[in-house]
Specification:
Layout: H1 2-27, H2 34-41, H3 47-51, H4 55-79, H5 84-101, H6 103-114, H7 125-144, H8 154-173, H9 181-199
């Protein structure tokens, strides 16, 4: 049946992508071969080339799939009628929860793509910048309604916000920071408190942030 064959092909493709995540996370993208991915997936070497032209295309696919989900989430959060601080809190929670649910995939995204702007990541700079632009829009509107101080460029605020999250992820990835449910929740609060409190208008009343 055509439908069954199509599903089987989709399942094999997904299995190869999942295997690639494990191999890239364990050995690093540049240190592994296509054969390593095929071995991890338990399939013949040539099958990977039926679905992907190279291991670079595999990494491209992993990044583009995950980054598209992040962009969709940021847009969906921004479309809701929420204060800017709550929007940024939801975005931070999504990023941290993504690491909590699939640390290997987030390791691959951070180490092999977003922090590799001088090599592989350069091909995805437009996609990466799109996330920063969406976050900057949240800040820009909060500045327009007087919630945040307009003295800070929204683009800079967005880079600082996402950069803080990425640095925390890097700390977990390389074992530089303790990782666990308590630390994940603390990180969400810390990033939002640091960025949002820093964006408040000088002299305006400041609500005391929750204990970090």
């Amino acid at each position: 049946m055509p439908g069954a064959r199509s599903q089987a092909a989709a399942d094999k493709r997904r299995a190869l992508l999942d295997a690639a995540v494990r191999v890239f996370a364990r050995r690093g993208f540049h240190s592994c071969r296509v054969a390593d991915i095929a071995d991890e997936a338990g399939v013949a070497y040539g099958l990977l080339y039926h679905y992907f032209g190279s291991k670079e295309e595999v990494l491209d696919t992993l990044f583009s799939e995950r980054w598209a989900i992040l962009l969709e989430e940021i847009a969906a959060v921004d479309a809701r009628d929420l204060p800017a601080r709550e929007k940024l809190a939801e975005i931070a929670a999504f990023v941290v929860d993504s690491y909590s649910h699939d640390p290997d995939l987030m390791k691959v995204i951070v180490v092999e793509v977003t922090r590799a702007a001088n090599s592989f990541g350069r091909t995805h700079l437009d996609e990466i910048r799109r996330a920063y632009d969406l976050i900057a829009d949240v800040v820009r509107r909060a500045q327009a309604d007087g919630t945040f101080d307009a003295a800070v460029a929204p683009e800079f605020a967005a880079l600082t916000f996402y950069g803080a999250l990425e640095q925390i992820l890097t700390g977990w990835i390389f074992g530089l920071l303790p990782a666990g449910e308590e630390e994940f929740e603390r990180a969400k609060r810390a990033v939002v408190a640091t960025i949002c409190d820093g964006l408040l208008i000088p002299g305006a009343g400041r609500a005391r942030p929750p204990a970090l």
